[in-house]
Amino acid sequence: MTCITVVSDGSRCCMACDSQASNNGAIGVLADSKIIRHGPVLVACEGSFAITQLVRYETIPECSRTLDDMDLADWAANAFVPAIRKHLKERDLLRRVNDSLEFPGMTLIARGPEWLLIDSAGSIVRFLNEWWAIGSGAAEARGAMFAASVAEGATADEIADLGVAAAIALDDGCCAPIRHEWTE
Prior knowledge:
Order of helices and strands: EEEEEEHHEEEEEEHHE
Largest sheet: 5 strands, antiparallel
Distance between the termini: 27 Å
Number of strands: 13
Oligomer: single chain
CATH architecture: 4-Layer Sandwich
CATH class: Alpha Beta
Number of domains: 1
Number of helices: 4
Mean pLDDT: 89
Radius of gyration: 16 Å
Structural class: alpha+beta
Strand content: 25-35%
């Protein structure tokens, strides 16, 4: 199970994650972070590590380093999502839901101050708030992040880490240590 949080401070984003891994009933702690740096973009997925492993080990088109060259949503829609869908389909890792094939979980991506959610249908969602959480314990994480975001002086990494800490404390699908990464 996984909890991923993202917070924008207006100039860059911080993503945080827990470290629990489970496989066929066995639970352990991952040695690697669930957050993958793909060029200037941070990528993290809940539900299945298939997408993050594809980003780590496959040829996925890289996003431009400068925000002026390509909008993050354009890159996600025209390069990232189609490449991920192709690789998942080739490996028979898409989930059948009713009459459609869906990704095995939701994904957060961030570049600079901007972050987006890619849902299990492959749709790209841009939220209006500065933070979000997905995965196991996400509701608890969002509650903690809201409380921290209205407090005076809380930094983006503190808010992101507090969200994951709440998920670890209140959901048995998450465990320490908490890891976080900043966008460039």
